[in-house]
Design a protein that fits this description.
The structure holds three protein chains of three kinds. Chain A is of the alpha+beta class. Chain A is built from five helices and five strands. Chain B is an alpha+beta fold. In chain B, strands 3-4-7-5-6 form a five-stranded antiparallel β-sheet. Chain B has a four-stranded antiparallel β-sheet with strand order 8-9-10-11, sandwiched between helices. In chain B, strands 1-2 form a two-stranded parallel sheet. In chain B, helix 5 (79-86) runs antiparallel to helix 8 (112-118). Chain C is α+β, with helices and mostly antiparallel strands. Chain C has three domains: 16-21 and 452-599, Aldehyde Oxidoreductase, domain 4, CATH 3.30.365.10; 31-133 and 194-270, Aldehyde Oxidoreductase, domain 3 (Alpha-Beta Complex), CATH 3.90.1170; 285-448 and 602-750, Aldehyde oxidase/xanthine dehydrogenase, molybdopterin binding domain (Aldehyde Oxidoreductase, domain 4), CATH 3.30.365.10. Chain C has a seven-stranded mixed β-sheet, with helices on both faces. In chain C, strands 7-15-14-13-8 form a five-stranded mixed β-sheet. The radius of gyration of chain C is 27 Å and the shape is globular. The chains are: A alpha+beta, B alpha+beta, C alpha+beta. Chains A and C meet through helix 2, helix 3, helix 4 and helix 5 of A and helix 1 and helix 16 of C.
Chain lengths: 156, 279, 761
């Protein structure tokens, strides 16, 4: 079947199997390999993408379910050729080690900041609870999200 | 809806209905099964709603847990359901998992089911003729064997009575982690207080994760009736919950743990009903 | 303390933006032209003879290219852990495909297909006839006289007996204490699943792309197994999404290489999470009986340990791993007499192998839980008993005869105790309500590199300066995500006084980067860092020598500063590095390239001390960790942020091992953990705030005094948490993890089925 949707701002039309998972279509058919697969059961969050602004595990979604929707993946995050505020804070604050969870973390954080402009540390922790990281102990990630939120809100 | 009925008309026992898909996707991948028909209802916006009508709260079957958790009406009328929704999986899962899917899949540890049982919810189920019939949730869950809803059926909405101001509900859960954890125990309590709000006039309590599917327990509920909101009742309530769990899972390896841990849930439920902080 | 220009700052890793933008290609992201996909069929039985393998139905699946098993693969046995040919301690007991299934998850066959789906479907359709054999699921039962043999030589894989010193005559008021501590099988839980790619080209060359920790080690194993010359096998280390030791041994490289050779196509093999947990390797299950005699003054007079470790179905690194457990405590404490006996048994369970800390967390968990019990019996503060026994700088480890070096663990403990407020908090009541609160602490020791009397420590690196003054470091770097590249960049930058960004690094490739053993043994910063510093010093000397010729001055009168060679005492008559490179080439046909082979001659102790506060819910048995303070004897932080990152990540892992992580085995040998749904990592919501204190000093052979951090940081964590829980509850829990079930059971009469911790054997 044919899937039509918007990915990172561009209209996409691609042939898919009816039972194909979204993550496979992104990674294989569309070569958007920034979205990672860590568990295939919606537990690790490495495959997180945004559908109409909501964070979802792309391993738990049928590609067919995003017909007509607007998707944001890690490849759509950078502004032009540079890092956006979240990415820059991740880089500067040691929120990235091996980097495999990073795309999913960034997408969950992006969804949070679209919904809540200045989240508390508790809100950040809860929003990221579905994204596992074995390297960082989470704290630099949480601090990076908070710092990016502060930056995006501008001077108080 | 007409299209749904048509699709349901083509369904066979080998067909699968997909709402959010968080359970079905895993089941299909694990089994390698390829259904003859995948009916994807996730795009049916008309099944996403929370509204009050005729003294009852109605929730569309495709309403996500994120939406339920955030809904102001439900916080007032169904605190236990708001709490249960907040305890479902991760933010990503709450964004797509639906209340209808949680009920249809009816896993032993589904968080919404104890809450809906405590609220005495009923289900609207559409069949292949397009007709919607209503069934009490407790009866649907008690149907012997087979998937619920059946082949060629789909849950379209759930409803329960609006809360009156002397009624309260609470949900409690224990998992391995404080969040994003499958319930090892979950329970929901609904009470109607007397006019002076000093004692319990009526109660419903549902337990999850101690049987193949969550259930209401009349004895524990009856034990609360007519009792004052005091420490003595709290103790009796905890003892009754513990006795029930001990009996329910007499043969299971988890019994030594659960028969004690249920006291923690009883404590949480009681504190929530009394309106005081847990610790 | 010397002032540094770059050391101690926190520049990001060179690949950070590539990771943040999704551009970095990990093994699972690589696509080779004509790539095919492999899927493994693994054993559903813990122990079974394979009678028949019928692949006919699998071969009918559209897209299936071939099905491979022991029926066609070489029967050669190999050791997945071997780094150098002929390595002592390596047991060749594993083959590409099992003839006898030895654990649930053992490799039986592989399907190669044009798509992952077809490969999976092919696996489902292979029919295997098994005759189940008696399964041996624990080290205890494996060593019983009538236990079924897992390998021909019997189940006792390895034993050791190390003793040193004589116990002083124990005074009458000395206490003798025994504690049996058990630690569990753990999953490394790198978020990147195990993946390997291989291609065998028409010219007979095999290339393997793997997120591995030793390209040269992998090459010897793969080439020897497949009968290829070493120069026909190229192993390329690709970006790695976490290892924690889980990708240290060569698990997928041999089978993927074989499948590529057989099919003549590029093959990609990726394991799903369940297979990563079950079929790669785990941290060993072990139990140790720790017996001590301690004087009333708290001095450890005698310490005896008896360890029994389950190796799983194949030896892998378990013999060496168990030996490592015996070589930690004498670097941590001054002990009158130390005696450690160990036995390692084959079991029909997942293969045990190296994991972060290599035996050090395992033995520290045992000893530190034990020491708290001793302190409690003596009425001593746990802080005090440790202060009285910890090693001092320059002590000789009596077991090896080598110095523990600049061992500043006592300062770590003292500084940490003050920062944590230990003395004020240790005496606070735990409370009597539903929530009990208490603090705990523990110490740990590990190492710095692989130097020992039995194994050499060496590496070779090349540094080249370009015409613009930029530099290329050619070294076999195996970046695991912990900052290897930025660490080496920083050291070279400091030594040559150029910006770290001026130095490019590359990852290990057995075809083009110089020999190195690999990334393990906590050797990167301490040893490879020292090598990089010496290499840079060599480059500096070469630049000064060339500048001296160009300027016609004596080289003793020149020095390097700010990217230039300038006269001592100032003046502006110097030359920039770029000018030197250009002029040396044009005038003297001389290249600014240096190669250095560095040899290690020391292996001082690395140390870490941790403090934590926990709250235990006595109704649900759930533990909440409120805060952790970790103090590391780092010597020198080369990249402060990466060092702190190692410390924080280690705490996440250590808390999990204390409380909730476990690869369980049921009565049939099946792993209970099928994925992250029931193998629980600490997530962001449950992670406590962590404070990191670094104790810095000069000394030892590491660059600027730097010592290792990645492994030592996890060593005391589990014991710290367990000690805090025991203090909160007044229990003596010593079987890990402290699940809610075990906690409620230990509360005895509070919970109906009260059970006691097992006594020492």
């Amino acid at each position: 079947m044919r899937l039509n949707c918007i990915i990172n701002g561009a209209a996409v039309s691609v042939d898919i199997d009816a039972d194909a998972r979204l993550i496979d279509v992104l990674r294989d058919a569309l070569a958007l390999t920034g979205t990672k697969e860590g568990c295939a059961e919606g537990e690790c969050g490495a495959c997180t993408v945004l559908i109409d602004g909501l964070a979802v595990n792309s391993c738990l979604v049928l590609a067919a379910q995003v017909e007509g929707r607007s998707l944001l993946t890690i490849e759509g995050l950078a502004s032009g050729d540079g890092a956006n505020a979240l990415q820059r804070n991740f880089i500067e604050r040691g929120a990235i080690q091996c980097g495999f969870c990073t795309p999913g973390m960034l997408m969950s954080a992006t969804a949070l900041l679209m919904r809540v402009q200045q989240p508390s540390r508790e809100e950040i922790r809860r929003a990221l609870a579905g994204n596992l990281c074995r390297c960082t102990g989470y704290e630099p990630i949480i601090e990076a999200v908070a710092a990016a939120a502060d930056e995006m809100a501008g001077p108080a | 809806m007409a299209a749904l009925a048509t699709a349901l008309g083509r369904a066979t026992p080998a067909s699968r209905l997909i709402a959010g898909g968080t359970d079905v996707m895993l089941q299909l991948r694990a089994s390698g099964e390829r259904p003859d028909l995948l009916i994807d209802i996730s795009g049916m916006g008309e099944l996403v709603f929370v509204r009050e009508q005729g003294g009852r709260i109605h929730i569309g079957a495709l309403t996500s847990f994120a939406r339920i958790e955030a809904d102001g009406l439900l916080r007032i009328h169904a605190n236990c359901l708001s709490q249960a929704a907040a305890h479902v999986g991760s933010a990503q899962v709450r964004n797509i998992a639906t209340i209808g899917g949680n009920v249809a899949n009816a896993s032993a540890c589904a968080d919404a089911i104890p809450a809906l049982l405590a609220l005495d919810a009923d289900l609207g189920i559409v069949d292949r003729t397009g007709q919607v019939r209503r069934y009490p949730l407790r009866e649907v869950l008690a149907r012997a064997g087979g998937p619920r809803p059946g082949v060629g059926e789909a849950i379209v909405d759930l409803s329960f009575a609006s809360l009156r101001d002397h009624q309260r509900s609470a949900f409690a859960k224990v998992g391995v982690r404080s969040s994003v954890a499958v319930a090892r125990l979950n329970a929901a309590l609904f009470v109607t207080l007397d006019a002076a709000r000093a004692s319990i006039a009526g109660a419903r309590i549902a337990f999850g994760s101690v049987a193949p599917v969550a259930f209401l327990d009349e004895r524990v509920a009856a034990g609360l009736c007519g009792r004052a909101l005091d420490e003595d009742t709290a103790q009796r309530f905890a003892d009754a919950c513990a006795a029930l769990v001990t009996e329910a899972i007499a043969q299971r390896a988890s019994r030594p743990y659960k028969q004690w841990a249920i006291r923690g849930l009883a404590d949480d439920l009681w504190n929530a009903i009394r309106g005081s902080p847990t610790h | 303390m010397a002032a540094f220009k770059y050391v101690g700052l926190s520049p990001p890793c060179p690949d950070a933006f590539a990771k943040a933008s999704g551009e970095l290609r990990y093994a699972t992201d690589l696509r080779l032209a004509g790539m095919s996909y492999a899927c493994l069929l693994t054993s559903p039985h813990a122990h079974a003879r394979i009678d028949s393998i019928d692949a006919r139905r699998a071969l009918q699946v559209s897209g299936v290219i071939g099905v491979y098993s022991h029926e066609d693969a070489p029967a050669t046995r190999y050791c997945r852990y071997r780094i150098v040919p002929g390595q002592a301690g390596c047991v060749d007991d594993e083959s590409l495909f099992a003839v006898t299934a030895r654990f649930v998850g053992d490799r039986i066959a592989a399907v190669v297909a044009t798509s992952p789906q077809a490969a999976r479907e092919g696996v489902r359709r292979i029919e295997v006839g098994y005759t189940p054999l008696p399964a041996v699921l624990s080290a205890e039962t494996a060593l019983e006289p009538d236990a079924a043999h897992i390998h021909a030589g019997g189940n006792l894989l390895h034993r050791f007996d190390h003793a040193t010193g004589d116990a002083p005559v124990a005074p009458a008021d000395a206490v003798r204490t025994c504690t049996r501590v058990s630690t569990q099988m753990l999953h490394h839980a790198a978020i990147e699943p195990h993946t390997c790619l291989a291609n065998f080209d028409a010219s007979g060359r095999l290339t393997v792309w793997s997120p591995c920790q030793s390209v040269y080690g992998a090459r010897t194993v793969v080439a020897d197994l497949l009968g290829l010359a070493y120069n026909k096998v190229r192993i390329v280390k690709v970006p790695m999404g976490g290892s924690f030791g889980g990708k240290q041994e060569f698990i997928l490289e041999p089978v993927t290489a074989y499948l590529a050779m057989r099919t003549g196509r590029p093959v990609c093999l990726t394991l799903d999470r369940e297979a990563c947990i079950r079929s790669t390797m785990v941290r060993a299950q072990q139990r140790s009986d720790v017996r001590s005699t301690v004087g009333a003054d708290g001095l450890i007079l005698d310490l005896e340990v008896d360890t029994l470790l389950a190796a799983g179905a194949y030896a892998s690194s378990s013999p060496d791993y168990s030996e490592a457990m015996a070589h930690k405590l004498t670097r941590l404490y001054r002990v009158g007499r130390y005696h450690h006996r160990g036995r390692v048994a084959y079991t029909n369970t997942p293969v045990a192998g190296g994991m972060r800390g290599w035996g050090a967390p395992d033995i520290a968990t045992c000893a530190e839980i034990h020491l708290d019990q001793v302190a409690s019996r003596l009425g001593l503060d746990p802080l005090e008993i440790r202060l009285r026994n910890l090693v001092h700088p320059g002590d000789i480890d009596p077991l090896t005869g080598h110095s523990v070096g600049e061992a500043w663990v006592r300062r770590c403990l003292a500084r940490g105790a003050e920062a944590f407020g230990w003395r004020e908090r240790v005496g606070l009541p735990a409370g009597t309500g539903r929530i009990r609160r208490a603090v705990g602490l523990a110490c740990g020791a590990h190492k710095n590199g692989i130097f020992s009397d039995a194994f050499p420590e060496a590496t070779t690196m090349t540094l080249k300066m370009n015409e613009d003054g930029s530099l290329d470091l050619n070294a076999s770097i195996h970046e695991v995500g912990a900052g290897s590249a930025v660490t080496l960049q920083t050291i070279i930058a400091e030594e040559l006084d150029v910006a770290p960004q001026m130095i490019s690094t590359r990852e290990a490739d057995s075809e083009s980067t110089p020999y190195d053993f690999g990334c393990f043994g906590s050797r990167l910063t301490y040893f490879c860092g020292a090598a990089a510093r010496a290499l840079a010093a060599k480059m500096r000397a070469r630049l000064i020598e060339a500048a001296a010729e160009l300027l016609a001055v004596a080289s003793e009168n020149l020095c390097a500063a700010g990217g230039r060679v300038v006269p001592l005492g100032g003046g502006d008559s110097g030359l920039s590095y770029a000018q030197i490179v250009q002029a040396a080439r044009m005038r003297y046909a001389r290249d600014m390239i240096v190669t250095h082979t560095h040899r290690g001659t020391s292996n001082p102790g690395s140390y870490c001390v941790q403090f934590a506060e926990v709250e235990v819910d006595v109704l649900t048995g759930l533990v909440r960790v409120n805060e952790v303070l970790t103090v590391v004897d780092i010597g020198r932080a080369i990249n402060r942020q990466m060092v702190e990152g190692q410390c924080r990540g280690a705490i996440q892992s250590g808390i999990g091992s204390a409380l909730c992580e476990e690869v369980t085995i049921d009565g049939a040998g099946r792993t209970g953990a099928g994925g992250f749904k029931n193998y629980h990592l600490i997530n962001a919501a449950d992670m406590p705030p962590v404070r990191v204190l670094l104790v810095e000093h000069d000394g030892d052979e590491g660059p600027y005094g730097a010592k290792s951090v990645g492994e030592i940081a996890v060593v005391p964590t589990a014991a710290t948490i367990v000690n805090a829980v025991n203090r909160a509850l007044g229990t003596r829990l010593a079987t890990l993890p402290l699940t809610p079930d075990r906690i409620l059971a230990a509360l005895g009469d509070r919970a109906p089925s009260g059970s006691r911790e097992p006594a020492c054997g």
